[in-house]
Specification:
Largest sheet: 4 strands, antiparallel
Structural class: mainly beta
Length: 381
């Protein structure tokens, strides 16, 4: 299939520019202490579990989601649904959980720190960069992608500054202070770290690039990633969203439209392109320890020119299984045994829903669970 290569980029850019003006926003809820979560989804699903007592330690194996449609993160039992929520700050986007049980949550207001064992926010660190007023919606300023260094000593958060290029803020997790600010691309959707912690990779959605940041010197280096070209600029749909670091060789994997996989060597800056088969606009991506790549498909950009929402499971040899999903989703995490995927229903555009889809990676069987409010980022505790 080559519909985009045949010149439909101009039409897609016009459509995207129109939608840009009507981006969906949703009000958050006031910050506060842990509360029980109220399931909010029109889809049939099992009843949510009873809230955990505020003093009970959080069981391992729960999921944690960042509720972009509220000011909370939600703890989710993968069998029964949401069990408790904790207020963290306006419009949380991405999150990362360290070995010490602390979750670092990128919100519009600052970087929130949550003790997942006691289910309490213990800090909120203001950004050093002025990203404008804390608001909601897809184009709001503030934290987006986030990752932790392998030793847990640093949190790296991509901060969107509306109307201009973004920054990577480096946080010392011991002192809970911002220690450095590094210029990166526009709207830093995703942040990843190399296996040895030597480099940080920031995906600039609106600048068609990945910024490679040396973790020691903090020097940035830009790599353009645009397998369809950069025609359409800010209005283009054909831009990078999320990346995954391939365990075998440390190369970056960036999916585009269920058609092309950009494989970026961060050392040389060279990009090769491999075919994909899902034929759907793609967002969240993650790589498993055994080398599989999981990619979330959100549905056709233009009605009649692509397939619906899906989850692609790509093996190291390039073969793919594409499992259909009910409705758009945003990001994905995988269980520790590698058998189950958890896909968030938040989605950064219209069509989101309040829950996650649990997918059996062997059979593709899927079930939906209520979980938070427009959940985006997700982690397995």
């Amino acid at each position: 299939m080559n519909r985009r290569a045949r010149g439909s980029r101009t039409a897609l850019a016009a459509l995207a520019a129109t939608l840009l003006l009507g981006a969906c926003t949703q009000a958050g809820t006031p910050a506060g202490s842990a509360t029980s979560a109220s399931p909010a989804t029109p889809s049939p699903a099992p009843s949510a579990a009873s809230p955990l007592p505020a003093t009970a330690p959080t069981p391992q194996g729960l999921l944690l989601t960042a509720d972009f449609g509220a000011d909370t993160v939600t703890f989710v039992d993968p069998e029964r649904g949401a069990v408790a929520s904790v207020a963290v700050g306006r419009a949380p986007y991405g999150l990362a959980v360290g070995a010490d049980g602390r979750a670092w949550v990128a919100t519009a207001e600052g970087l929130a720190v949550v003790d997942t064992r006691t289910r309490a926010r213990v800090a909120r660190i203001p950004y050093r960069t002025d990203a404008g007023p804390a608001t909601d919606g897809e184009y709001r300023g503030g934290g987006m992608g986030i990752a932790l260094s392998p030793d847990g000593a640093h949190a790296y958060v991509g901060v969107n500054v509306p109307g201009t290029t973004g920054v990577l803020e480096v946080v010392d997790t011991a002192t809970q202070r911002v220690t450095a600010v590094v210029p990166v691309g526009r709207r830093p959707f995703d942040v990843d770290v190399s296996a040895d912690g030597a480099e940080v990779y920031v995906t600039g959605h609106d600048s068609f690039d990945v910024t490679v940041v040396d973790a020691g010197s903090l020097r940035p280096r830009r790599i353009e990633v645009a397998p369809y070209g950069t025609e359409g600029g800010l209005g283009s749909w054909l831009k990078p969203h999320y990346a995954a670091v391939r365990p075998a060789d440390g190369k970056l994997l960036l999916p585009f439209e269920g058609e092309r996989l950009a494989v970026v060597d961060p050392r040389t800056g060279r990009t090769t392109v491999e075919p994909m088969t899902a034929d759907t606009h793609q967002h969240g991506a993650t790589a498993t320890a055994d080398g599989r790549l999981l990619v979330v498909g959100t549905g056709a950009v233009e009605p009649g020119t692509g397939k619906g929402p899906s989850l692609t499971v790509r093996s190291p040899d390039g073969s793919e299984r594409v499992y259909p999903l009910e409705g758009p989703h945003e990001d994905v995490a995988v269980s520790r045994d590698g058998r189950t995927a958890y896909v968030t229903g938040g989605y950064t555009r219209d069509g989101h829903w309040n829950g996650i889809t649990v997918v059996d990676l062997e059979t593709g069987a899927a079930r939906r669970l209520p979980a938070g409010a427009r959940p985006l980022g997700i982690a397995v505790l």
